[in-house]
Amino acid sequence: MIQPTNCNDTPLNSLLFKFWGRSVSRTGLQQLEKAFVHIITTGKKRGLSGKKLSKENAQESNCNVLIHDLETLAISSERDGILTKVSLGMVQILDQIQPDILIYVRELEIDAIRGIKAAMMAPQRDGGVTEIVIPLKEVEYLMWLADLPIEALKHWNTPKIQLQVITQDRPDSLARLIRSLNSSYYFGDSTPLTINMDRKADPVTIEYCKTLRWNNGRKNVRHRIVQGGLMAAVVESYYPVDDNDYAILLEDDVELSPFYYSWTKYSILKYRYGTNRTLVGRMYGVSLYSTRVSELHLTGRQPFNPSSSFEGTNYPSYSPYLGQVPCSWGAAFFPEVWREFHRYFIARLEDWNGLRVQNITVPESRSNKWSNSWKRFFIELVYLRGYVMLYPNYEKFQSLSTNHAEVGAHIHFSNKKSHVNDIFHVPLMKKNDLLRGLPGGKLPEYSDLPTMDLLGNLVPGGELVQRGRSLHHEISQCPPGEYDEPIYDPQDLLCIDEEARQAAMNSRLRKEVKKSRLTAAVQLLVKSRGNVTDDQLLELLNNTLRIYHGDENLPR
């Protein structure tokens, strides 16, 4: 063991890194703060000796790093010798330092790595160590791991991220999306993929979904038997099994950056599982898309550049930000809020198709006129609760997803299609600029993120909650709760005054009676044709018109 020097006695967590050859020197993981970092190397004949790494690490002036060198080739060139030595050495090290986290590469054909697995499966292991196992070829894309606090690293395997793809009859677009998914980095995570086809899916799309390759987890294919449309397809695609079940929703005209999963997992771990997780209760998701259009102004779409909004403030020009608008062009949604949205959406649809006594209008938002979009109702909930979504904000709108504006439910064929594509298409991040494009080379702390409202205006975070509470008082008989913590239950938003409900029911009943009488009168006219006098026919016509115009004193 090579000991650190000039360390203080502050109690720290322990992390254990076991890397093959030079992979450790490409990660920056030894720069983790507030932790004792133990690094195990396999000797200079395998690419990196403990002494050499110690010299490299000395340049970082990090006193919390301890290096262990197993020199696996020093005793034997036989496979069993290497495996046994590593396994025994790992058991001793694990027993000695009791690490919180063990990080190593996934290369099972390498005997040293198999030795680690054998050590972790030893009977004396109690399972209290978080294993982070990374494919060797993806280690260099994991620099962001060094920014995560120990508490977040302990939850590396906790969040489960599923992919939900919405499609119908655009097989070429779907194939492009799947290619981008298959070209991304998942760091050994099992990431289930579900393809949701509506009833009118064409044969080419159906065949493609049957044969497409997905090697990063389970593949599911669903086909509706009743046409649901885009609104139902999106909302019904995902329902979380627990509070660690996340979904990335993707329409088939979206294309992804190879680093989209890095951005998603980094953000979720940093904000949802870090030391300040209590602050992020109103964050409902992570957008992959760098928007440059504000779509909710009453006058129509407006150009939008968040960096311009940060001029003259203390926020860095290219800081990620918290925005209220839900992104439908590639985004991860969080389980608690999505579950709440399901209940809210059901109640709103029932009222929409029934009495229509819930008069919910988001101030100054064009979404109030959207009659066939799930985002209309999600925006209502977001406004009422003061919820926000994390958005990327890289230079030149470099993005983790882009939209190709294909003809579909909300984009119709016209000679302006290319113009629409120019508006919504943004450049994908092709190089590993995930950290280089962030202020200070890392995600800001949650309290340091700027907040923007539905119209793209920079506002204090607390103001969004107050705006929502004001509208809440107007639309519901149940007042907002006294506490700031979200409850993820929409019932307090849906309390209707009983007098208003009864008045609506009576009005609906009167309309039904009128409709019934009008139908009966018309049927009588048809049946009596040729069998009544002109005076009788005129009386029938007058009665029919009186019914139509709402005269309540009608003869039965």
Ordered list of secondary-structure elements with their pairings:
Blueprint (H helix, E strand, L loop, with lengths): L12 E6 L16 E7 L8 H9 L6 E5 L9 H19 L3 E6 L4 H10 L9 E6 L14 H5 L5 E8 L3 H12 L10 E5 L5 H9 L7 E5 L5 H9 L7 E7 L2 E3 L3 H13 L10 E5 L5 E2 L7 E2 L2 H4 L11 E3 L7 E3 L1 H18 L21 H12 L2 E4 L9 E3 L13 H8 L26 E2 L5 E2 L1 H15 L22 H31 L5 H15 L8
Parallel strand pairs: 1-2, 1-4, 2-3, 4-5, 6-7, 6-9, 7-8, 11-16, 14-18
Antiparallel strand pairs: 9-15, 10-17, 11-15, 12-13, 14-16, 18-19
Protein name: 17655_t:CDS:1
List keywords for this structure.
alpha/beta; 5-stranded parallel β-sheet; 19 strands; Spore Coat Polysaccharide Biosynthesis Protein SpsA, Chain A; 556 residues; Rossmann fold; 34% helix; Nucleotide-diphossugar_trans; 17655_t:CDS:1
Concise synopsis of the structure shown:
The chain is α/β, with parallel strands linked by helices and about 550 residues long. About 35% of the residues lie in helices and about 15% in strands.
Largest sheet: 10 strands, mixed
Lateral arrangement of strands in the main beta sheet? 8-7-6-9-15-11-16-14-18-19
Shape: elongated
Name the CATH homologous superfamily of the largest domain: Spore Coat Polysaccharide Biosynthesis Protein SpsA, Chain A
Number of domains: 3
Question: Helical stretch count?
Answer: 15
The rounded distance between the terminal residues' Cα atoms is 100 Å
CATH architecture of the largest domain: Alpha-Beta Complex
Estimated share of beta-strand residues: 15-25%
Please give the share of residues in helix: 25-40%
Radius of gyration: 30 Å
Average pLDDT confidence is: 83
Q: How many β-strand stretches?
A: 19
- Fill in the CATH topology of the largest domain: Spore Coat Polysaccharide Biosynthesis Protein SpsA, Chain A
Low-confidence stretches: 1-12, 20-25, 72-77
Structural class: alpha/beta
What's the CATH C level of the largest domain?
Alpha Beta
InterPro entries: Nucleotide-diphossugar_trans (IPR029044)
Protein name: 17655_t:CDS:1
